[in-house]
Design brief:
Elements: E1 2-6, H1 11-22, E2 29-33, E3 42-45, E4 48-51, H2 55-60, E5 65-68, H3 72-84, E6 88-91, E7 103-104, H4 107-110, E8 120-122, H5 126-142, E9 144-153, H6 160-171, H7 201-214, E10 220-227, E11 234-242, H8 248-256, E12 261-263, H9 275-278, E13 284-291, E14 298-305, H10 309-325
Parallel strand pairs: 1-2, 1-5, 5-6, 6-8, 7-8, 9-10, 12-13
Antiparallel strand pairs: 3-4, 9-11, 11-14, 13-14
Helix pairs in contact: 1-10, 5-7, 5-10
GO molecular function: aspartate-semialdehyde dehydrogenase activity; NAD binding; NADP binding; protein dimerization activity
Binding site for NADP(+): 9-12, 37-38, 176, 307
InterPro entries: Asp_semialdehyde_DH, Asp_semialdehyde_DH_beta, NAD(P)-bd_dom_sf, Semialdehyde_DH_NAD-bd, Semialdhyde_DH_dimer_dom
């Protein structure tokens, strides 16, 4: 199968190449795509060198599927052109997520809603993916009515420039800035731009995407998203209010049986999910399970995942795997 990766030279694009290799996705020919300034550069995939091409060239090469991770404006311009050529696009940007004509997919939750006619499929926000993977099985059993989430997000979620800023500040070296403030030894309670309601775009993504993926407009979500000086994983403190009463032992059992989730919840031995342990892993880690003692039918939990993998590249590849299993690509 010919597979295009649009944005192949970026952080997520590079991770897509890694995940395609690790999961042995049936790539017969890789088509790496990037901006005009990167055309002609080479990327390595399964021990072979492939030249980066332009989007126009990629369409002419007729891949079966194109994994996009090149930003919203690129997706808005090029995804429809790929789709018109009969190429299935799995897009990692925010461009199509809230488009009512496009599916927003976490395969374990709503992969079955996909059809052969879905030519542009949206990959959710990294912080949303890990949260809904843990929430969905609990919603099926207890019916969630409200979620309060605070995130602690890695600099890798911003990109290479942010990683460089953190490393430069750690060394005391001047360099390009991805953030308006110092990130080393600091915490920045702003991810993306502020909107008129006082929330950031990232916070509202979590609100709207959760409802769309889980298919229930009655779920109320409020979020505070925070950037911390960590590389390789997002963490979330999540407070979940249910309509129905629960037993902690049942919650633990449900999560342990959920594909893609690993429960790490042994506080007596200081065992709980941490980003360093989720680094380069595809699973979502859940722990610190405890009852909210201030409110009935309410649970506190701590959710951690590698934002470049399940939060981006792995989820996109899993969508492609689902489509391939259906023989649609």
């Amino acid at each position: 199968m010919k597979v295009a990766v649009v944005g192949a030279t970026g952080l997520v694009g590079s991770k897509m190449l890694q995940v395609l290799t690790e999961r042995n996705f049936p790539v017969t020919e890789l088509i790496p795509v990037a901006s005009e300034k990167s055309v002609g550069k080479e990327v390595t995939f399964k021990g072979k060198q492939y030249k980066v091409v332009s989007a126009d060239t990629a369409i002419a090469m007729k891949p079966a599927v194109a994994l996009f991770s090149a930003g919203g404006s690129t997706s808005l311009e090029w995804a429809p052109k790929f789709a018109e050529a009969g190429i299935t696009v799995i897009d990692n940007s925010s461009a199509w997520r809230m488009d009512p004509t496009k599916k927003l997919v976490v395969p374990e939750i709503n992969g079955k809603t996909l059809t052969p006619e879905d030519k542009i499929i949206a990959n959710p926000n990294c912080s949303t993916i890990q949260m809904v993977l843990a929430l969905n099985p609990l919603h099926e059993k207890y019916k969630i009515n409200r979620v309060v989430v605070s995130t602690y997000q890695s600099v890798t979620g911003t990109g290479v420039k942010a990683v460089e800023q953190l490393m430069n500040e750690r060394k005391g070296v001047e360099g390009p800035k991805a953030y308006a403030h110092q990130i080393d030894l600091n915490v920045i309670p702003q991810i993306d731009v502020f909107l008129d309601n006082g929330y950031t775009k990232e916070e509202m993504k979590m609100v709207k995407e959760t409802v769309k993926i889980m298919g229930d407009s009655n779920i109320r979500v409020t979020a505070t998203t925070v950037r911390i000086p960590v590389m390789g994983g997002h963490s979330e403190s999540v407070n979940v209010a249910f309509d129905n009463e629960y037993e902690l032992s049942d919650v633990r059992s449900i999560l342990e049986k959920t594909p893609g989730i690993i429960v790490v919840d042994d506080p007596a031995n200081a065992k709980y999910p941490m980003p360093k342990d989720a680094h380069e892993r595809d699973e979502v880690f859940v722990g610190r399970l405890r009852r909210d003692e201030t409110q009935e039918k309410t649970l506190n939990m701590w959710i951690v995942a590698d934002n470049l993998r399940k939060g981006a590249a792995t989820n996109a590849v899993q969508i492609a795997e689902f489509l391939h299993a259906q023989k649609w690509i």
